[in-house]
Amino acid sequence: MNTFNKLLRSIGASVLDFCSTIGRIVIFACSSISHIFRPPFYGKELFSQFMQIGFYSLPVVGLTALFTGAALALQIYSGGARFSAESVVPSIVAIGMVRELGPVLGGLMVAGRVSSSIAAELGTMRVTEQIDALVTLSTNPMKYLVAPRLLAATIAMPVLVAVGDTIGILGGYLVGTGRLGFNSNNYLKNTVDFMELGDVTSGLAKAAVFGFIIALMGCYHGYNSGRGAQGVGKATINAVVSASVMILAANYILTEAFF
Amino acid sequence: MIMVQNLHKRFTENTVLRGVNMQIEKGESMVIIGGSGTGKSVLLKCILGLEKPDNGKIFINGQDTTKLDRNLFLSSFGMLFQNAALFDSLTVWKNVAFRLLQGSNKMSEKQAKDIAVEKLRRVGLSPDVAEKYPAELSGGMQKRVGLARAIAANPGIIFFDEPTTGLDPIMSGVINELIREIVVEMGATAMTITHDMSSVRAIADKVIMLHDGLVQWSGVIGDLEKSQNPYLNQFLNGNAEGPIEAVR
Ligand SMILES: Nc1ncnc2c1ncn2[C@@H]1O[C@H](COP(=O)(O)OP(=O)(O)OP(=O)(O)O)[C@@H](O)[C@H]1O
Ligand SMILES: [Mg+2]
User: Fold this and answer.
1) Chain A residues touching residue B104 (CB < 8 angstroms)
2) pLDDT in tens, B113-127
3) Most CB contacts within 10 A, which of A145, A201, B67, B217?
4) With 80 as the cut, is the pLDDT of residue A24 above it?
5) Is residue A97 part of a domain?
6) How far is B74 from chain A (nearest CA, A)?
């Protein structure tokens, strides 16, 4: 009885803990969104975050997309050959990249790179009292630190994913024409002909949501980091893990919505 | 004028402040002394609103700080943090000029930089350090940059958390003189935490001693030596034996 009680109690405690964390994240998100729209605005910060999050993530996202597109072409070819449908390779590579793999893999890669760096940076600022110092200098850290990162990531991710999609399709094209014997013109024609505008917009909308999630998780965990180096380390892990899981969950929900 | 009434603050099991009362008049220089870990830094942070007190009230010029406009309230403050808390992504001069470059009536970069360089000179740093990053400076230099940042916008109330810790004796003297100057010439109100007794004598009008979450002694600087308070005497003489236990 006693152990049963203990078990129930610990389950109850973790459920409550989970719920209150969700609540805190929602409040944090709402307050940071409201700060995005209210002055003062920090344009310089926004630009430098856009470069940090967007521009410097290009190599990671590009390489991921290139290899994924190339592997996808091979897989679809070997699957398609069973129904003598090898000709679908170009269109399925394109649709698969644009609707699903570009945003999801790009999102996960950027989550690893950006959520962690935001969490570590803000966590260090919290631990070394730099966030307190900002407050004493009449600067709202939500406006100066959080809002620019959220906005920059939400804008940068669709751009990154658009570039990634293109590179992924290029990867499929290189394998398709170089190794699988497709005619170059046919490949490109098939890529373009079967793609719909909705494929592209749904993928980019996903990317924007993922960008928001990435920055939100990085900022939330960094901003509320525990004390010391250990606190920052924990914040970084939590940021990456929660961002990745939330991206995958949000991906399913959004895919249902666009279905 | 700052008035603190019955201030309580605890962190989970650790009760730090258990009813602090104190008052400081405009243009006065108050020094807070007390053992390491007694909550001196926490007291300053509570007044600034960086930590939320569990109980008690804080008044600035007779107004309850929780009811004041926070921006207006903070614009009259300068704070030097114990570990400087410089922004490590910004150069030294941008740290010092940070407040001057924010807000609706911000200055041009050139103007702000001139002021920053002048403030750096006042804390004994040459203009060469202006373009460096905080990580490239020694601990004592970072402390002085933090001091320059705290005084850059000529605030009316300034808190210094151990301004001379980590400085050599000559530089300590320079900083003590600077704090005294700020109070006397600019009419600022200053609250300084220090462990350095020569600093206390150099800058204090009034002294309070914190121990065990309470103000154990307070008075004007002239009464410091005459006091019969056992806590204060043990502290001033640096005895291991006495009412304050060495292991806390
Ligand atoms: N954010 C915090 N979370 C938990 N405990 C804290 C926090 N800040 C301070 N404390 C605790 O409060 C107590 C007082 O800390 P404080 O920094 O005010 O000491 P202090 O008097 O300034 O000491 P020192 O002279 O060494 O700087 C310490 O026991 C410290 O562990
Ligand atoms: Mg302290």
Assistant:
1) 40
2) 999 999 999 999 999
3) A145
4) yes
5) yes
6) 6
Structure tokens belonging to residue A63? 């390489």
Q: Is the CB of B50 under 6 A from ligand 1?
A: no
Rounded Cα gap, residues B208 and B215, in angstroms: 7
Q: Is B129 a domain residue?
A: yes
The bound ligand whose nearest atom lies closest to the alpha carbon of B13 is: 1
Contact assessment for residue B16 and residue B210, using Cβ atoms and an 8 Å cutoff: no
Band of pLDDT at residue A175, cut at 50, 70 and 90: very high
Give the range among A80-84, A226-230, B84-88, B103-107 with minimum mean pLDDT.
B103-107
Residue A1 confidence class, pLDDT cut points 50, 70, 90:
low
From B71, B75, B85, residue closest to A130, measured CB to CB: B85
Distance of CA B198 to the CA centre of its chain: 16
pLDDT at B71: 83
Domain count within chain B: 1
Are β-strands B14-24 and B206-211 bridged in parallel, bridged antiparallel, or unpaired?
unpaired
Token pair 């019955």 is found at B6
- Identify whether B120 is part of a domain: yes
**Whole-number average pLDDT of chain B:** 92
**Residue A58 in domain:** yes
**Domain hosting residue A92, numbered range:** 40-258
**Among residues 130-159 of chain A, which lie with CB inside 8 Å of chain B?**
130, 132-139
Does residue A245 form part of some domain? yes
Q: What is the DSSP letter of B51?
A: S
Domain that holds residue B92: 84-154
Residue B103 domain-assigned (yes or no): yes
- Residue B131 in any domain: the answer is yes
Q: How many domains does chain A have?
A: 1
Tokens representing B103? 């807000």
How close B160 comes to chain A (CA, Å)? Answer: 13
Helix, strand and coil content of chain A, in percent to the nearest 5, comes to 90, 0, 10
Residue B18 alpha carbon to ligand 1 centre in Å = 14
Q: How far does the CA of residue B79 sit from the closest CA of chain A (Å)?
A: 7
Atom 7 of ligand 1, nearest CA residue: B11
pTM, to two decimals: 0.92
Tell me whether strands B214-220 and B206-211 are parallel, antiparallel or unpaired: antiparallel
Predicted ipTM of the assembly: 0.92
Query: Which pair of structure tokens corresponds to residue A7?
Result: 């078990």
